[in-house]
Amino acid sequence: MQVPSFSLKDQLSEIGVDLSSAILKVVESGHYIGGLEVDKFEKSFAKIIGVSHAIGCNSGTDALILALRALNIGHGDEVLTPSFSFFATAEAISNVGAKPIFIDVDIENYLLDLNLIKEAITPATKAILPVHLFGYPVNMDEILALAKENNLRVIEDCAQAVGSIWRGKPVGSIGDIGCFSFFPTKNLGAIGDGGAVVTNDSQLAARIRELAVHGMPTRYFHTDLGYNSRLDAIQAAVLNVKLAFLPKWINKRQKIAKRYQVLLKDIPSLEVPSDSLGDNNVHSWNQFVIRLKSSSQNKQISKENLKFDLKKIYDQLPNSSFRDYVKESLLALGINTIIYYPIPIHLQPAYAKLNYKYPCLKNTEILCSQVLSLPIFPELTEKEQDYIVNHIRDLIQSYL
Ligand SMILES: *Cc1c(COP(=O)(O)O)cnc(C)c1O
Question: Which CATH architecture has domain 246-399?
Fold first, then answer.
C-alpha cells in the first residue's frame, strides 16, 4: 500500500469540475488582478474569521511582512516568537529589519512557552508573534494579558490554523492582526500561493491594503515603499469554491486525529499530541505530530550524503536516530511522513549571526529530533490509518 503524507486526489474528484469552471470564468472575464472573486473571497473570509477586514495577499509570508510593516515594526525593534515553526515566521521579522527573539516552546503542546515571555521583554520589544502550530491554538488570553501589561502588539501566525478556535473566537481575530496562508497543503489551500491578513482595526486594514499595492492609497500616488502582493483572481475563485467545504474538511481532520490518538495510545516511547484544550477551544489538525522518544541507540545520521553544513548542524542536535529509523522504515513500507521541523530556526545557517549556540532552547531542540508528522488529510481512509498504525507499532516493538 502507498500512503502519501498529503493528497488532493480525492478532493479533486469531488470538486475538480467546480474548480475548473470557476477558473474558466475568471479567464473569460478578463479581470485578473482584483475584481469580483477577490472581493467576494475577502468578505467571506472576514466573516468566517469573525473580523471586519480581510485583505488578500500573495502568501502567508507576505501576510506576516504586511502585518509587521503596518504596525511600524522595523530596524531596532524586537519581536518575540518561537523557533519551533516554519522558517517564514522569523524570516518575515528579519526582512522588515527587526530582530526575532526566539522563545522556547512548551514540551507538551509545542507552542510558545508563555512563562518565558516576560523575561525576554526589553525596551526594544514591540510585539509578540505566536504561532498556532499544527492547528493547536495558543492560549491567547495569556498572550493578550502579557501584551497589555507591556504595551506590545500581537500578530497571530495562523498559517496552519484556519478553523482553530480559542475560547470561542477563531484564531486570527484575537490579536491586533492575524496572518493566514493558502499554500496548497494548509487546511484551506489554493492551487498555488496565496495569503490573507485580517484585523478589526480599520486604520490598520487601510494601511495593509496600501502596503500590498506599492504603498499607493490612490493610483500613482505613493505614500510609502510597499510591495506587489495581491491575492490572484484565479486563486480567489478557487478559494471561493473551497470555502464551502472547509467545515466538513476540518471535521474529518478532527475525526482522523481522534482515531490516531486512540490507536497510538499505548505504544511505548511514542507520545501522541496533546489535545487537552478545554471548553470552547478547537484544534484544526493541519498536522498530526507524534514524538518518538527513545534514545537507546548511538547517534547515527542516516542521511549520508548530507551537505557538510547540514551535517554539522545535525551533529549538534539531540539524538534523532529513533525517529529517523521509524521514518525511513515507514517509507520503505510506502508510508510517507514529514519532519516538521528537523532544524530549529535559531540554529539555521541563515541565523548564525544571531549567535544562538546549542544547547539553548532545550525543548525546541529536543522536539526537532523527535517529531514526526503522520499522514493527515480529510480523505485519508480508516484502512490507510490502520496500515500506518500497525506498522508503527511493529517497528517500535522491534527497535526497543
Ligand atoms: C506555511 C507557513 C507560513 C508561510 O506561508 P506561505 O504561504 O508558504 O508563505 C508561515 N508560517 C507558518 C507557521 C507556516 O506554516
Answer: Alpha-Beta Complex (3.90)
